[in-house]
Amino acid sequence: MTNVPTEHPIAPIPPVVPPGRMAALDQPSYALPCGLHLRPWEPYDAPALVAAYADPDIRHWNRPDPLTEARAVTRIARWRERWHAERSAVWALAPGAADGGPAVGLIGLADLDLPGGSGEFMYWLLPAGRGAGATAEGLSVLTRWAFGELGLHRVRITHSVANPASCHVALKAGYPLEGTMRGALLHADGWHDEHLHARLSTD
To answer: For the chain, what is the total number of helices (H) and then of strands (E)?
Structure first.
């Protein structure tokens, strides 16, 4: 009599972030030591978004499409929808209180894979917000939120190797350089190698 091996079913791997966790959270606001605030984008930020998407530096490194003010309002509304759909989280960097002045920058957590526990931060600042260290401070605060409140395992930052300012921000926010991805992103002047930075919840 031949013994037939017993097949043992493989248990499914549970999601790192359970469905519905992000949608159940309110998008938080934070005061930063530099004097700016992190808060959700509001319709009155539309002119700032139009200005950002026309800024030469922001356009070069982030490749946004030009916006009218009406389209900017629509995009801001879509960002709120994407939070509840658990697809991304986008914050404004702005002066004043949580409901104060218009945005001068953006920090977004995108490319979310909640079952796999990962996401990617991106960021930009208008000239009015540059020089105070706001982006690194904001990234540090939002990284703690991403690990502690949302429950991600790994968060990364990528940027062109020709953008040392972005590299400085990532390092200052505690994201060590893991390596270089060759020809990873197409810009107006051709293919760029990109640095890959990342942090783990266990770091």
So the answer is: 6, 8
- CA gap 92, 198 in Å, rounded: 22
- List the one residue out of 124, 158, 126, 149 whose CA is nearest residue 138: 124
Q: What is the CA radius of gyration of the chain?
A: 19
Backbone angles phi, psi at 54, to 5 degrees: -100, -10
Q: Distance (Å, rounded) from C-alpha 157 to C-alpha 122?
A: 7
**Residues 80-91 pLDDT 10s:** 999 999 999 999
Architecture of domain 30-200: 3-Layer(aba) Sandwich (3.40)
Three-state SS at 183: strand
pLDDT(29) > 60: yes
pTM for the full predicted model: 0.91
Q: Cα–Cα distance between 62 and 185 in angstroms, integer?
A: 10
